[in-house]
């Protein structure tokens, strides 16, 4: 189809072109001679045909352009004629197609009309939907507001309305679990009326408020009578107060809360009634318990039971019965009384059971029992009042009476108490009770326990000073007995000191240690004075050794806590044993000892100091003749002089060892004398002396 214009162009200008235009350099054969026709665009078409393959083939075969053009034109005409025939054959179909297109056009026109109308209707519906949407939003907001109003209104109606059932329960119902729940509901209504300012301005309040007030008054009246009745039940004899509190009163705890919130004056009356009731009940219980304990008390010490007071002046020799002897032995010795500190957590004594068994106890046992009952009762009451009333201060009002009862009894007993060990035990008991209350985290008795502790220490100091002064001011003549064995005052002191040291081990009270040091100095001074009552120095030394040894033994029996006192007495015992050994040897071998001590122990003696046979011969012969008898006599003296056999054996061994040392120095002196070998037959061998020492050591 594109070759047609080109052919027509070539046909129109066939006289003016040569075939050389399309080959090689494509030069023109003929020049344009006519100026009538325009050749504008021809060059462009020629350039386009230059690269055309078909044109190139025609030119290459030498075909004339005009002929080829004519052939092309003929072909085109034939094709055109054929096309016309085809159209003529299909004319009916074309007409039918035309009719169909026209019908479709009509249908589409109708559809356009319908769609245009539908579009208009849709626009109208969209406007209506917007209106409906606005109405829906408005209705939703109104519904939300109405629901909020309904909620508040229903809450208001529910809070302010007084149901008939509530009236029936408050007015005619019994105080039980249902009554408690109804009381809580009434309390909420009262709070609602009082708290919300909008309620006070409502008309409904004018109708409801009088009824609510009458219900409040009726509820207050009923629960007042109910609670007071329960309080009075506490006053009945043999009532278990703690069970009644836990199982009954705490069950109706809300009645107190209601009174505290809505009837403060009535609550004050109820509070005062409970305080008065429990004050009297507990005071009576403790008073009765104290009276029962008094029948169980064992008197341990009186004002005359002191360390430095002679036995005869206390009437001890005239006391009869094993119980009295046992009691007297507890004045200065701790003994089994220490067990009370191991029974701190045990329940309080039941007096009528102990009385039925005819049992008696030192006061510290009764003291522990009374204080144990007090702290347990106080703990229970403190926890109950805090839970039931919600006040800790009410406890102190309740326990003012019971504590006063206990205080009066305690002060009366303490005023006449001269049992220093018992007082120290009570101090330790109070300390343990303070720890118990601390572990329980109950602070209600802190001030009371501190006060008791403060009362005990001055009394202990006063009684201790009585013992101390009894030693310092002791009558030596009345205390002295012509007996070298341990004095009873020494045993008292040792037992007394060991007891206090034992009780002070875990506490380390420095003031008590100072007082014990003062007591040690006093007893030591007294023993020295008593020893001087003996005429012989040997007897004085024996007396001191026996007393020091007894003191050390008793302190050791109390444990390893003898402390400074034990160490001191061990030192003075050691020094007195050395003195006694010298005195005993002087009694039997004075010449031998004097000779040995006046002669040097080495060979540095001058000629004037040298010993002759005449000087030593009597000593050697005298020793050989008497040493066995002297050793036997020393053995007898030790046996009769010292109460402690072990101590006596140690003293005898020390004496014999010292004797052996003296005799050894004598034999060495003999060996250095010219001609001293002549005395060898009279010298006693060392082995013989050792044999005698072992012999008496075995029999001791």
From TrEMBL:
Keyword Transport: yes
Subcellular location: Golgi apparatus, trans-Golgi network
Main subcellular location of this protein, as a coarse class: Golgi
GO biological process: protein transport
Keyword Protein transport annotated: yes
SUPFAM superfamilies assigned to the protein according to its UniProt record, in alphabetical order: Cullin repeat-like (SSF74788)
Residue ranges constituting the Vps52 C-terminal domain according to the UniProt record: 276-580
Residue span(s) of domain Vps52 coiled-coil: 86-259
Listed InterPro entries: Cullin_repeat-like_dom_sf (IPR016159), Vps52 (IPR007258), Vps52_C (IPR048361), Vps52_CC (IPR048319)
Alphabetical UniProt keywords: Golgi apparatus, Protein transport, Transport
A Pfam family that the UniProt record links to this protein: Vps52_CC
GO cellular component, one term: Golgi apparatus
Recorded family membership: Belongs to the VPS52 family.
PANTHER family: SUPPRESSOR OF ACTIN MUTATIONS 2/VACUOLAR PROTEIN SORTING 52, VACUOLAR PROTEIN SORTING-ASSOCIATED PROTEIN 52 HOMOLOG
Name of the protein this chain belongs to: Vacuolar protein sorting-associated protein 52 A
